[in-house]
Specification:
The chain is of the alpha+beta class. It is built from three helices and five strands; from the N terminus they run ααβββββα. The longest helix has 20 residues.
């Protein structure tokens, strides 16, 4: 689902709000999440999950095309930890929505 689909879905459930207002609100939320993470803050949305940064240490890797070694610098990547409430909700509803025989697994 992309931003425009989220906006459409919210607009259907709340017709008293203009589409542009909904779009601005969702963009503001994303912008504030981004800003908080850039500042090194953790963002917790109860019942949904926690956004944070994870440090990846500098390391030596190999270029798969030619086998040459490449020095990768330390970097920070966004991380999301799902809340137990959301995890349980997904587990309860996923079996109804998805056919277990067609799901890809990590196995």
């Amino acid at each position: 689902m992309v931003l425009s689909e989220v906006v459409q879905r919210i607009a259907k459930q709340h017709p008293d709000y203009a589409d542009e207002t909904i779009k601005q609100c969702t963009r503001l939320i994303v912008a504030h999440l981004d800003e908080s993470l850039v500042m090194g803050n953790e963002v917790q949305i109860r019942g949904f999950g926690t956004f944070s940064l994870r440090r990846r240490a500098a390391r030596v890797a190999r270029d798969p095309r030619n086998g040459a070694t490449v020095n990768l610098p330390e970097t920070y990547v966004p991380h999301f930890k799902v809340s137990p409430k959301l995890r349980d909700s997904v587990q309860q509803h996923a079996a109804v929505v998805f056919d277990p025989t067609t799901l890809k697994t990590d196995d």
